[in-house]
Write a structure and sequence with these properties.
Length: 393
């Protein structure tokens, strides 16, 4: 179906931070499957572990105990604030599970009949109908109304907006069940969460017994320079969702919860493919390899190099670029609103310099290379961005 405006490129193989088209031309990949290929392409450790798993078993179902699933759940619990995991296949599915959890929490723990979940304007939580309804961008809603009821939106990093919204909704009594929020709004334009705002948000949620749920689908698994985006903010959510970078390019997602939010019972929620041996082997391999190779330290080093280089590009091309922003290996260039240049147009032009980029909205050029990117590859990436501005824009 015609659901993608595809780039004029056919990718047939990859290795590390590089991919090749069918004609043998090589491209530097700063998209990484949209922040998904944490270990890059065709990683040796991931290939070995998945080949080994295929020789054992690839799928049963959650009707039975799955050792690979239990091993990945243990790793995630031991490396986060969570106590339990529910596995699914994508970020949208993880957020759908979080939405159901929030509603069950409202009904069973707080006696709320018509619960409301709050999310931020400019947020993005997925394409399925519940996750789409939680997404605070009307351009994603158009044509798919009526949305799922029970959602409302406040301004990101604006605590006054958050408090005002709660007062309006709860004028006749408690109704807010949960807050679903990204520590960094990525699809919304790489908006970095403000520490003070998030700490105020946490305090308010504790006071009012509102579940605080983080969407860590794109920020988790080391990409922002920490294992999890909440660590950068100095707070812990009651639950968080992960996907993308967890599988290193293979389909897996998870809802992670603290014990007090561990409310699902048999029959409440399920997934046929979620947590199967193959996907969980991918997830555990990615996790242990990030740890073994000390990649989070490398993410911060490469991120600092990338940030410094992007700041120079901002200085050199003030006509087109407003600023750079981001952290770790989630970074980008913010284009001026009054320029005709868009992020998708720039990404298409960058193909001529054999560079893969993607937008974060129409005016932010997103840069999310694999976590294994090397210093010399960061330098090449920056040179290719600069060349695109000089030669093609």
């Amino acid at each position: 179906m015609d659901t993608y405006q595809r780039f004029p490129l056919t990718i047939v193989k990859g290795k590390g931070c590089w991919v090749w088209d069918e004609k043998g031309k090589r491209y530097l990949d700063a998209v990484a499957g949209i922040a998904t290929c944490s270990l890059g392409h065709s990683d040796n450790a991931l290939r070995r572990s998945l080949n080994k798993q295929l020789n054992k078993i690839q799928h049963v179902s959650n009707l039975y105990h799955i050792p690979e699933q239990e091993a990945l759940a243990s790793w995630l619990v031991n490396h986060s604030c969570a106590d339990k995991a529910f596995f699914c296949n994508s970020g949208a599915e993880a957020n759908e599970a979080a939405i159901k959890l929030a509603r069950k929490y409202a009904h069973s723990k707080r006696g709320i009949n018509k619960p409301v979940i709050l999310s931020a304007k400019a947020s993005f939580h997925g394409r399925t109908l519940g996750a789409l309804s939680a997404t605070g961008q009307s351009n994603y809603h158009k044509g798919f109304e009526p949305l799922v009821e029970g959602f409302d939106y406040f301004s990101f990093n604006d605590f006054e907006s958050f408090e005002t919204l709660i007062k309006r909704i709860e004028v006749n009594g408690p109704r807010v069940a949960a807050v679903l929020i990204e520590p960094i709004q990525i699809e919304g334009g790489l908006n970095i969460g403000d520490t003070t705002f998030f700490q105020q948000l946490k305090e308010k949620c504790l006071k009012k017994k509102i579940l605080l749920i983080f969407d860590e689908v794109q920020t988790g698994m080391g990409r922002c320079g920490y294992w999890w985006g909440y660590e950068r903010l100095g707070i812990e959510p009651d639950a968080f969702t992960i996907a993308k970078g967890l599988g290193g390019g293979h389909a897996i997602g998870a809802l992670m919860v603290k014990q007090h939010a561990n409310l699902f019972e048999p029959g409440d929620h399920a997934s046929t493919f979620g947590g199967n041996p193959f996907a969980c082997t991918a997830g555990l391999t990615v996790a242990t390899e990030i740890e073994r190779r000390n990649l989070i330290t490398q993410v911060n080093r490469r991120g600092d190099e990338l940030k410094k280089g992007l700041q120079k590009i901002v200085h050199d091309f003030p006509k087109h670029i407003k600023c750079s922003r981001g952290t770790g290996l989630i970074q980008g260039l913010v284009l001026h609103e009054d320029t005709n240049l868009t992020a998708p147009a720039f990404a298409k032009a960058a193909l001529q310099e054999q560079l893969l980029l993607v937008g974060a909205g129409s005016k932010v050029i997103r840069i999310v290379p694999p976590l294994v990117v090397k210093a010399n590859e960061i330098n090449q990436l920056l040179k290719k961005i600069e060349a695109t501005f000089r030669k093609h824009i």
